[in-house]
Amino acid sequence: MPSRRSPVLRAIRLRLPAVPAGARLPLVCAAALLLVACAGAPTRHASLPRTPGKPMIDPSAGLEEISIQAMSLVGTPYRYGGNTPDSGFDCSGLVRYVVARAADVNLPRTTEAMGTRGSALDRSEVASGDLVFFNTTGRANSHVGIYVGQNRFVHAPSTGGTVRLEDMGKPYWASRYNGARRVVAAVNQPLPVQPASPVPTPVPPAAPPDPVPAVDDDPIAAFANK
């Protein structure tokens, strides 16, 4: 009668060394279990490379850095014509220095010229890092500061003072507010292109005026900061 042993057991029997009959059964069972365990081991698959996700973008990037840089200069002495921390700052010198350092944007030196750069903002659109302008001398945009959030701005007020954090809600500033402009776009988006100014017609030089004593570019009334 043909043998009914499985091919696995027949193969094991052929490969077993000569051992006493009583010891063969345990060896056969152990070998069979070993073969079944090896055959059933899971196959490992090589892991696929992960595709990096898109970087997160902060919609205020570029603007927050301006306000942080401005806050770091609070306490720097005011100096008419000053444009560095070592020499001191006037209002436009402070703004020009901060925006150049924090956003690599080169602004004009005067507040009047700064008021033509970037894009105008409604009051509800003003965010940290935007420029805020005031009329402190009877002419528009005679004073400028950097908005830092919570209705406050950093500016260099007047001779004898220092760079300071100011509340725009004070009656003095609220009544003289001229508007705000964004000279650095969030997420480095391009700002609206300003139309080119017409080239002025050259005029012959006029006789130099009589010298006048130097005055602040943004004199502030003494009560403004009380």
Walk me through the structure:
A hairpin with an 8-residue loop joins strand 4 and strand 5. Helix 3 (64-72) packs across helix 4 (91-103). This protein has 226 residues and is of the alpha+beta class. The strands form 2 sheets. It has a 6-stranded antiparallel sheet with strand order 3-8-4-5-6-7. The chain is globular, with a radius of gyration of 39 Å. The protein has a domain at 64-189: endopeptidase fold (from Nostoc punctiforme), CATH 3.90.1720. It has helices spanning 7-15, 21-39, 64-72, 91-103, 111-114, 171-176; strands spanning 83-84, 88-89, 119-121, 131-134, 143-149, 152-155, 164-167, 177-182. It contains 6 helices and 8 strands; from the N terminus they run H-H-H-E-E-H-H-E-E-E-E-E-H-E. Residues 31-43, 45-59, 211-216 and 219-226 have low confidence and may be disordered.
Task: Describe the SSE topology.
Layout: H1 7-15, H2 21-39, H3 64-72, E1 83-84, E2 88-89, H4 91-103, H5 111-114, E3 119-121, E4 131-134, E5 143-149, E6 152-155, E7 164-167, H6 171-176, E8 177-182
Antiparallel strand pairs: 1-2, 3-8, 4-5, 4-8, 5-6, 6-7
Helix pairs in contact: 3-4
Main features:
226 residues; alpha+beta; endopeptidase fold (from Nostoc punctiforme); two-stranded antiparallel sheet; 8 strands; disordered C terminus
